[in-house]
Specification:
This protein is mainly alpha-helical. Helices cover 54% and strands 0% of the residues. It has a domain of 57 residues. The longest helix is centred in the C-terminal third of the chain and has 22 residues.
Length: 85
């Protein structure tokens, strides 16, 4: 249960974003470097000590995840009648 909403589950996640006009080659290089780091056993071990589960992937996969999260939380906000303060 999250904040009094019994049928709503939230988890934390983090990702790295680049400015909209970042050249595709730069995004690809950053993605490759991040994926190498996130697959490294030492990095994975260090992250696991803090409860982080790394999820290497492509920029396209992360964009799809963000799109799905925005849609999911937009629906929760509408359905629950949540208003900003």
């Amino acid at each position: 249960m999250e904040q009094g909403y019994a049928d709503t589950f939230a988890n934390q996640w983090a990702g790295i974003l680049a400015a909209a006009l970042t050249p595709a080659a730069t995004v690809a290089n950053l993605s490759t470097a991040l994926n190498v780091a996130l697959r490294d056993p030492g990095t994975r071990s260090t992250l696991a000590q803090t409860g982080v589960i790394p999820s290497p992937g492509s920029p396209e996969e992360f964009a799809a995840y963000l799109k799905a999260e925005i849609a999911r939380w937009s629906k929760v906000i509408r359905d629950k009648g949540i208003k900003g303060e």
